[in-house]
Amino acid sequence: MDTTPLEVLKESIFHLLRAGHDLPAGDPVPFRIGPSPERKFGHFSTNVAMAYAKVLKTPPRQIALSLVKGLEALPDIESVSIEGAGFINMLLKPSYFQERVLRILQGEYTANFSLFPPDPIQIEFVSANPTGPLTIGHGRQAVLGDVLSSVFQKAGAALTREYYFNDAGKQMKLLSRSLWVRYNRLCGSEYEIPEGGYHGEYLSGIAEGLYREKGDAYRDRWDDSIEALFTERAKNEIFQMIKRTLESIGIRFDVYYTEGSLFRDGTVDEVLRQLRDREALYEKDQALWFKTSDFEEDQDKVLIRSDGMPTYFLTDIAYHYAKYRRGFSKVYDIWGADHHGHIARMNAAMRALGIPEGFFNVILHQMVSLRQNEEIVKMSKRSAHFVSLDELVQKVGKDAVRYFFAMVDKDSQFEFNIDLALSRSMDNPVYYVQYAVARIHSLFENARNKGLLFAEFQNINRLDSEDETFLIRDLLLFPEIIREICATQQIHRLTNYLYGLAYAFHNYYTGHVFVDLKQPELSNARLNLASACQKTIAEGLKLLGVSAPERM
RNA sequence: GUGCCCGUAGCUCAAUUGGAUAGAGUAUUAGACUCCGGAUCUAAAGGUUGUGGGUUCAAAUCCCACCGGGCACGCCA
Description:
Elements: H1 5-20, E1 33-35, E2 44-46, H2 48-56, H3 60-73, E3 77-83, E4 87-92, H4 94-105, E5 120-124, H5 136-154, E6 158-165, H6 170-187, H7 202-214, H8 224-248, E7 255-258, H9 259-264, H10 267-277, E8 281-284, E9 287-290, E10 301-304, H11 312-325, E11 330-336, H12 342-352, E12 360-365, E13 368-372, E14 375-377, H13 389-396, H14 398-406, E15 414-417, H15 418-423, H16 429-450, H17 466-475, H18 478-488, H19 492-511, H20 520-544
Parallel strand pairs: 5-6, 5-11, 6-7, 11-12, 13-15
Antiparallel strand pairs: 1-2, 2-4, 3-4, 8-9, 9-10, 13-14
Helix pairs in contact: 1-3, 2-3, 4-17, 4-20, 5-14, 6-7, 6-8, 10-11, 13-14, 16-19, 16-20, 17-19, 19-20
The protein binds one RNA strand through α2, β9, β10, α11 and α12.
């Protein structure tokens, strides 16, 4: 699909404006057309008159008045009114909506858009280190990334979902040692978990497996090869755990990219060479520094420590350099707000490497905090203070988890009250939306049982009441939501929309009989309407990764 | 201290990105067809949008200053 219903209307309005006024040169003033807030204001309304008041040096109401005649002459318009400061409200003819119901049934408005150029893009998200199970914090990001990816794809993006896997560096060393301490405890030797190490219970399970297999072969023994063995063991088992968790909420990545590969294939050296050639590096206190301050308002950063170990920042630069070399035209990193300080220096590095502006993009989201007994606690894997995503999925299920995380604006931090989330699982609005789909399915079952033969696309002209045109109006907003999400990355607009649509349907359902053998044509028309609702809601749920069950 | 995000009904969150009388869910109260699924629907009540200024036809939204919360300011990731 290329043009949405609202864009068509907007275009007509702009034509009328241009025909009746001398528009000043330059960019057109942005204005809005959308569903009217109340029925008494018609189906759609626009603020075009207010938007242009300043440049035309004309009072808004006067501009609005100048457009009324032209609007009323349009074939789809029933009537036009001007309200308030200069809102133009439009009531459209039933024929307009009847024609569009057919398009919905044919799948036109739920088809893919072409908002994106055909060049490959990438979204990278979750990318949690394999040092422990995923938490509900990761759950939020996982859902945000996955739904955003689906929406981008719906909008025509050639998109790769990617998970960056930190399998090298200091954290792995700490993890390895933490596991070794657990293992030794089983053997009967007591050691301290290192400073900054991992205290979570999940390591005990891995240690037990190791102990069962190898006995006390590594008791009180610690060298490079044993460290490597413990690293491998911990990393692999935890990563499988993470994959299983993601799978349980329906998330699969196209690519898992490992940090280690950047060393093996020479990307890290290549990046250092390039930065050196561009004179963006210097040595100080036996460490190698990047001149971040040459490119951004930020302090210089260490790339290689005085002990020769590369920093996370260096490999991260190399990783993004590799993304560019792999041919993506644009990449999006989804980061929690705790990483926002990293943005400026990453931009600095991209610039230093000559990577074009706009290639590297960050989508930030706020944190999930945990409420326990009136106290907000920070989740941390290292301190083992967290609620695991697995626990939540097991208690409330995949659909509720996905909807739950998708419905909150990514820029709002939200307090997660675990007891509330678990005890009120049945109040999750996902069931409200799903119920609409199930209800429609049973309507068709009912029609069949009563012997009413459903004819798709037939009797649409019987959909002519206000209740019907307004319901169809809501259906037509679906493509607008896709556009808005692409522009704002706010996936909660989708849950808002679906909830509103489900509400509109439930409301209509209560006031109208769908299957009435005495009125077979009207019934058939309404079943077509129900089908259009089902199609639209199901498409939205699909983007959310939530099931649209026929029965609940 | 500096930078970023946030502050909306008792609680959890919205508000078409500057628009019309700030809305839903939940909790409370009162109701709904002997009929297509009551996991639904209708209504009441609930607000000085943290505070004080400013910008304009119009501010929860933009600007400034305070207050409060979160996050970041490492040779951690």
